Amino acid sequence: MVCNVVTFQPRMAIRQIGKALGFSAELLDRLAKGVDRWFSEDVEDSMFGSVPPPDMRPQSWQHFLELCREVIDFPRHLSIHNGGMLVTGEPLVDIAPVEPAAMEGRRVVQFNKDDVEDLGLIKMDMLGLRTLSVVAECLELIKDATGTRPDLDELTLDDPKVFETCGEADTIGVFQIESRAQMQTLPRTRPKTFNDLVVEVAIIRPGPIQGNAVHPYIRRKQGRELVTYAHPLLEPILKDTLGVILYQEQIIEIAMYVAGMRPGVADGFRRAMTRHLNRVEMSSLEDSFINGCLANGVPRDVADQLFAAVQGFAVYGFCRSHAAAFARTSYETAWMKLHHPVEFACGLLNNQPMGFYHPSVLVEDMKRHGLKALPVDVNRSDVRCLPERVEVHASAGARTFQTREFPPIAGTRVEYAMRIGFNYVRDLGEEGRKAIVADRGQNGPYRSFDDFISRLRGGPIGPRAVRNLVMVGAFDALGRPRRELLWGWQERWHGTGLRKGIDKQSELRLDATAPSLPHIDDFDANQLEYRISDLSTGHHLIHFCRDRLRALGAIETDKVTRLANNQRVRVGGLVITRQAPATANKIRFFTLEDEFGQVNVTIKPEVYAKYRQVANRQPILVIDGVLQRQDGVHSVLASHIDALPGVPRSTQRSHDYR
Question: For residues 390 and 404, is the Cβ–Cβ distance under 8 A?
């Protein structure tokens, strides 16, 4: 592994030093946000000539500036570069200084990751993706169900149904193209080939966004804008990306064939652009690039424009091979979702946390595709979520649930549903999950709640886990109501009973009739599932709020798409994501979900400032706004935000991105 030295940058230095000097949070925020207006590293005396804020004494201001000057570029902390591996032809200790890592058996190269590249050593970034675990597990589940394990290397990457699914933005759970930004772009670009998918993966990145590449590419892909090049020298470099910069390799090619740099110098130019450079260093790079362009007959204004595009892109842009590898995984996961949706959903839920959405959103998406999620069951659930065979009787249409090992009954059609595993029962723990499955495999199904308690006494399952199993409905199939079981659990063992040392002779038998206890209705069951499993296999939470939403005039999300552009609309739903991208000029993006789908909401800064307390803290929102529609993509521009009154607070957590 390679070291990663993180140094103090201007804003970071300002905040840390100001905090140490006792500056107020409001003053620190103003100073950090205004750093570019008064801080200039290429002029020695720029800081000391700056005018202090009105609420600071000149002496304190000068002391603060001197400390900032001393600490900038000083190492802030030393960490291990995520995935950075050094490859050498000789023993590593003969090439670089090493030290033991915190993990036993690991070694860390003491060189910084940037120094490794400057020294000409080979560094490979070996990134780990949970998606690869999803893919591997999904393939094994498909093999269990069909007897054949698909060979993804044999996929031809030209399945029209896969590209149609992507073009419709039906990509929840699909690697790299499931985010709001991707789902708003896919219907506009309509990928038809694998190369289109490579571009899609690469384009929704801070680099292309800062380099002003996204909208020109979309317009050109749609045929609304001619493909043009700022200079003829750029055409062979940017032809396959319709004249916009999308890949790191294109920066090298521009540096070589437009700015006249040698290959090694061009790659050094690209790498230098990806670092935090001071203004003197950046000015030197710019002069070298501009002069090279001028020598090749490129006009000065075009050279300036090109450098600005390269500078904005370089730090966050993908290399072509990286984008292609990601696009391959995107295609594979889209193919799995389309052709093996239950197995894919199991893989996603079993490898959380990952991806853009909360697990409950993945389950709701699965249900909207006509698939079934089955609740936790003490006799049918496994350690993890697994497909469960559903046999549909052709004659009566009734369904019986069988384990996968039995052959199908004559006259039935075999389908698969997803059975939620014990991994979605809070407080059960890995040992508790395995103990239930192992005991069941050895001694057969549990015949009653008492049988379960008796057989697992003294094991790793604690009282909270037992209560959670009861409340989530894991014993429902055994015929005893949940509240009756909880009453007996408390009366008999005072909520314990699985610990060693309890005198069985002193146990109270549950012979007395339980008092009249309220029935667990659908809403109660929904709330308990959300509380214990963070998802619901039954109705969506908004299903229980539908009458109130209709009374307020809020329409269902699937009806939003039928409205005309610029039409006023009121929508309501559960907030599943909140986003505040740094590149969006303080505009916020929320996504609301109901039982029919999702709707995206755009919130401008002045509206957000007015309703931020409600927007950030309330799980179910009612939003007024104007529908904005373009190229089949729609969202609501918010004008008023309120919480839905009279609804219990949801335990489902949204994914908030700052």
Answer: no
**Do 561 and 569 form a contact (C-beta atoms < 8 A)?**
no
Identify whether the C-beta of residue 494 lies closer than 8 Å to the C-beta of residue 463: no
Q: Which of 544, 532, 525 is nearest to 594 (CA)?
A: 544
Residue 443 pLDDT? 93
Q: What pLDDT, in 10s, does the model give residues 543-559?
A: 999 999 999 999 999 99
pLDDT value, residue 509: 47
Tell the residue number behind the tokens 């929904």, with chain if given.
526
CA 85 to chain centre: 25
Residue 315: other Cβ atoms inside 10 A: 13
Tokens of 101: 């890592």
Ranges 249-263, 431-445, 514-528: which has the least confidence: 514-528
The Cα–Cα gap between 551 and 547 comes to 6
Is 571 a residue whose pLDDT tops 80? yes
Q: How far apart are CA 50 and CA 518, in angstroms?
A: 71
Distance, in Å, from the CA atom of 652 to the CA atom of 118, rounded to the nearest integer, reads: 48
Closest CA to 177 of 196, 160, 151: 196
Cβ contacts of 406 within 8 Å, gap of 6 or more: none
Residues 6 or more apart from 454 whose CB is under 8 A from it? none
Beta carbons within 8 Å of 179's beta carbon, 6+ residues apart: 204, 356
581 or 419: which leads in pLDDT: 419
Q: How many other CB atoms are there within 10 angstroms of residue 84's CB atom?
A: 18
* Interatomic CA distance for residues 74 and 16, integer angstroms: 13
Cα–Cα distance list, 214 to 243, 288, 426, 579 (Å): 11, 28, 43, 19
Q: How far apart are CA 289 and CA 305, in angstroms?
A: 12
DSSP codes of every residue in 87-129: E-SS-GGGTS-EEE-SSTT-EEEEEEHHHHHHTT-EEEE----
**Cβ 206 vs Cβ 584: under 8 Å:** no
Tell me the whole-structure pTM to 2 decimals: 0.82
Interhelix angle 320-339/194-203, nearest 10 degrees: 110
* Dihedral angle, C-alpha 191, 195, 197, 199, nearest 10 °: -100
Averaged confidence pLDDT in the chain: 84
List the end-to-end C-alpha distance of the chain, in Å, as a whole number: 29
pLDDT tens digits along 594-651: 999 999 999 999 999 999 999 988 899 999 999 998 888 899 999 999 999 876 555 5
Structure-model confidence comparison of residues 311 and 189, the more confident one? 189
Q: Are 570 and 584 in contact (CB under 8 A)?
A: no
Give me the amino acid identity at 415. E
Nearby residues of 139 by Cβ (< 8 Å), 6 or more positions away: 149, 150, 152
d(CA 618, CA 574): 9
- Do the beta carbons of residue 450 and residue 482 sit within 8 Å? no
Q: Which amino acid does the sequence have at 179?
A: S
Q: CA-to-CA distance for 530 and 553, rounded, in angstroms?
A: 27
Tell me the C-alpha distance between 431 and 23, whole Å: 50
Hey, what domains does the chain have and what are their CATH numbers?
Answer: 1-127 (no CATH), 131-323 (no CATH), 429-533 (no CATH), 541-657 (2.40.50.140)
pLDDT per residue over 145-175, tens digit each?
888 999 999 999 999 999 999 999 999 999 9
* Rounded Cα–Cα distance for residues 154 and 37 (Å): 56
